[in-house]
Write a structure and sequence with these properties.
This is 2-hydroxy-3-keto-5-methylthiopentenyl-1-phosphate phosphatase. Keywords: Amino-acid biosynthesis, Hydrolase, Methionine biosynthesis. GO terms for molecular function: 2-hydroxy-3-keto-5-methylthiopentenyl-1-phosphate phosphatase activity. About 40% of the residues lie in helices and about 20% in strands. By secondary structure, it is an alpha/beta fold. A 7-stranded mixed beta sheet has the order 4-3-2-1-5-6-7, sandwiched between helices. Strand 3 (about 120-125) and strand 4 (about 130-135) form a beta hairpin. The two termini are about 15 Å apart.
């Protein structure tokens, strides 16, 4: 019996053309945000620490401004709707595994036929003076990277004996997950990592290319 295909797809910079967290910071320009981004990318700070501290720079009095900006300035990468249709047709399980935040991830994805329980992301709390990020999908006992939204924890729930696991991503939040799966579709920083480690990966610019490669993999 052949293994069932399952896709774990990043959101920021993958489903969307831009990185929404960075875009929010660039737009509102809270003091100190640039240093935090640099420290996360260079791995001098964990993702959870960096993202948490970035949003803690933004007062909750600007809540609606932040939400509106995040939702209204998103561009979806070409071919995403077609990829979802292809997955449905081919009975490929599709999960969004995002280091993004609920207040923009769920609204942006609401126009697509993805069940809420197939979307993993971080949560937010606007009750205090500044935005607090909440971490409902933390690392399990096998991961010590303080991911925030731990993609490897989710991937490990699906045995390689039963599933052909595929990751689609672009950057630092996808690094650990890429090491676990059988196939990676990579953009940006993730290409460099996959190349360095000799992982089984395919670079892509849009989701039409992903569909084409998935079809080619099916006939090999």
């Amino acid at each position: 019996m052949s293994r069932k295909r399952i896709i774990f797809c990043d959101f920021d910079g993958t489903i969307t053309v831009n990185d929404n967290i960075v875009a929010i910071m660039k737009h509102f320009k809270p003091d100190g945000w640039e240093s935090l981004v640099e420290q996360v990318i260079s791995k001098k700070m964990t993702i959870r620490e960096g993202v948490g501290q970035m949003f803690a720079l933004l007062p909750t009095s600007r809540r609606q401004e932040v939400i509106d900006y995040a939702i209204n300035n998103v561009t979806i990468r070409d071919g995403f709707a077609e990829l979802l249709a292809y997955c449905k047709e081919q009975r490929i399980e599709f999960y969004v595994t995002s280091g993004g935040i609920d207040f923009f991830v769920y609204p942006v994805l609401s126009v697509f036929p993805i069940p809420d329980d197939h979307i993993y992301c971080n949560a937010s709390n606007f009750n205090g003076s500044h935005i607090e990020i909440v971490w409902p999908h933390a690392c399990d006992e096998h991961c010590h990277n303080d991911c925030g939204m731990c993609k490897t924890t989710i991937i490990r729930r699906y045995s390689p004996d039963d599933y052909e696991r595929i990751l689609i991503g672009d950057s630092v939040t996808d690094f650990e997950g890429a090491k676990l799966v059988e196939t990676v579709f990579a953009r940006s920083h993730l290409i460099d990592l996959c190349s360095e480690l000799g992982l089984n990966y395919f670079p892509f610019n849009d989701f039409h290319e992903v569909i084409q490669r998935l079809e080619e993999m099916s006939v090999q």
